[in-house]
Amino acid sequence: MGKLKKGQREKLENVLYTLPAIVFVTTMMYIPFVMSGYYSLTEWNGISKEPKFVGLANFIDLFTGDKSYLTSLWFTMKYTIFFVIVSNILAIALAVVLTKKFKGVNVYRGMFFIPYIMSMTIVGFIWKFIFTQGFSKLFETTNWGFLNLSWLGDPKLAFWAVSFVGVW
User: First-to-last CA distance in the chain?
Assistant: First the structure.
């Protein structure tokens, strides 16, 4: 590299510095994306040696034959809209409140930051405990009727329970 001119050397350095990132992104994102597109057009269980090409038959079955797909698609759309709107409104409100100067502001800032530093696995276990055992124990103590509901067993309540956990 010592015999190259300054312009050629800079170009070579640019290529050499960006090449690992290009290889990494291509390997981890672009190739799996293209492969998932190909596999969506095949009938394959992931174990057999050769996938069988079926074309758009999977998508036709998905949209015409399977009513549970449309139900789950509607659930996902409702959840996404609710999550985006409520989490952004709450985030802006909290940001405005926590930028003010008042007694204990640092404690509140720490309380709102704790969920971000906790592992999502631990948070999942905590919410599982709350929904399966925590509410029933609180109901026994307080006799508040809403705590005795089957939050994850009733489809209408499950949407709100899952949405609340997501926004939290």
Answer: 54
